Amino acid sequence: MAEKLEKIEQVIDEKLTAAEMYARRPRKWWLYTLIVLILAVVISWSGSSLSYTGMTSTGTQVAKGVVNGITHPDMQLLFGTGDTDVPYLLLQTIAIAVLGTLFGAILAIPFAFLASTNILPKPIAYLFRVVILLIRTIPSLVWALMWIRVTGPGAACGVITQSVCSIGMISKMYITAIEDLDTRILESLDAMGCTPFQKIRYGVIPQLTASFISTTIYRFDINLKDATTLGIVGAGGIGASLVQCLNSRRWAMVGSFVWGLMVLVLIIEFASTRVRKKLARGE
Questions:
Q1: Residue 272: inside a domain, yes or no?
Q2: Could you list the residue range(s) of the whole structural domain that residue 228 is in?
Q3: Less Cβ around it within 10 Å: N or C end of the chain?
């Protein structure tokens, strides 16, 4: 009985303590009110620049055409084996994304190590971070328009563009992984008399491998979608054919390209999600 009373008293004391802590919570209603007012002003200012005059007759026809194309795709184009059919163009798009991601991931490794503050002095690391930031600030379409003047239209332009764009994002993710390294493992290996190569082999690589692979797969998802967009400016892939069909209003062909893209993205998304879960949680 005494033990039960002690437990009841302990629970009451905890509740009182929680109530006291809640009563002493910081009063920041003025800050929250200010944030709401700022958001309201920004939203109203942004909305003032919008002007909707309704859909034009041409826009309505295009929308109907796209819907009709998706519901009635060109089956011969969708399952054909020629170099202008959907399967071939999808394989070309995948190839551009794979090569762009692979080259970008490899080139991002030295950038990431050189931009990590726990590897190099801060002034040097910040210098390389500025370079990475400059790469990231330029959109992929602008990179494609610049490289297309060098390589000409085609898949090569898409690969180079995606490689350069991948460096910016992958390097940033790599830097986070490198700076989160458990240095105690390296200190233990150093105390055991391991060589620098052995410390990298057994102390650094095992900690970074899963994070690096997961980041690369995530970037591949992005590059696969970007490869379609880059085709608009002539950087290879299925995007160029899709734009041509849209401009000529061949809706059945548009529907075939859209269905091919949707199926491809779903398959890649499912596979990449499974791989990332396996790496992160071992599921």
A1: yes
A2: 74-281
A3: N
Element at 125 (helix H, strand E): helix 122-137
Does the residue 7 lie in any domain? no
**Both tokens of residue 45?**
């200012």
- Asked whether residue 44 is domain-assigned, the answer is no
Token pair for residue 24? 């002493």
Q: How far apart are CA 224 and CA 103, in angstroms?
A: 14
CATH of the domain at 193: 1.10.3720.10
Distance of CA 182 to the CA centre of its chain: 26
Q: Which residue has the tokens 């969708």?
A: 78
Q: Which residues contact 77 (CB under 8 A, 6 or more apart)?
A: 85, 86, 252, 253, 256, 257
Rounded CA gap, 155 and 168, in Å?
21
Rounded to the nearest 10 degrees, the angle between the axes of helix 238-247 and helix 205-230 is 20
* pLDDT, tens only, 1-55: 556 556 655 655 555 565 666 666 666 777 788 899 999 988 888 877 777 666 6
Longest dimension (CA), the chain: 88
Separation CA 86–CA 274 (nearest Å) = 26
